[in-house]
Write a structure and sequence with these properties.
The chain is mainly alpha-helical. 58% of the residues lie in helices and 3% in strands. The chain folds into two domains: 1-50, no CATH class; 52-207, no CATH class. It starts with 12 loop residues before the first strand and ends in a 6-residue tail after the last helix. 29% of the residues are buried.
Amino acid sequence: MICPLCGQRKARRACPALGKQICAVCCGTKRLTEIACPADCPYLAAAREHPPAAALRQQQHDVALLVRFVRDLNERQSQLLFLIVTFLVHYEAPELQPLIDEDVTQAVGALAATFETASRGVIYDHQAGSPSAERLVNGLKPLLSKVEEGGGTVFQRDAGVVLRRIEMAAVEAKQERAGHRRAFLDMVGRLIQTRDGETAKTHSEEAHRVIIP
């Protein structure tokens, strides 16, 4: 049987998340990013107990990149950044139109411009450059509006800073892995994972945890 994910290699592993046999390569590379692995998956447990050297190097690289982009953010801004990237990780794009880094760059860039303009007292919605990026903007707006309640100009400035930082991180990740259309999204997918045994909170619930001055 051929792996249904790559269509190339033999399917030798029973994936409890998909209910199908998949190949070992897809199991290892798509785990917790494109595949929502359950906590009791034996392959997931084995990987966590004995991570290969390549995975450790990748993790160290991911963490170093993340630290570089959050090092001078205050606590409120850091919480907002993690709220947004968690939304990106769990964002469900329309079928046959998967979210890519370029969509993220355009969407957060447009939103950053909107908040920057608003902080100067001018209300104007900047548009993203593509339909898929605009859909992402429309998905993020309710989340950010929830957090913005009571924040005023301070929140608008913070949102502009955080969204620009995400835009910068997405561009740099794309440059590091030329030709890979989901370098940034895969990176944050590896970093933002629900802990074993913990029920994921909704984005609305997480929004209340962001500190508002």
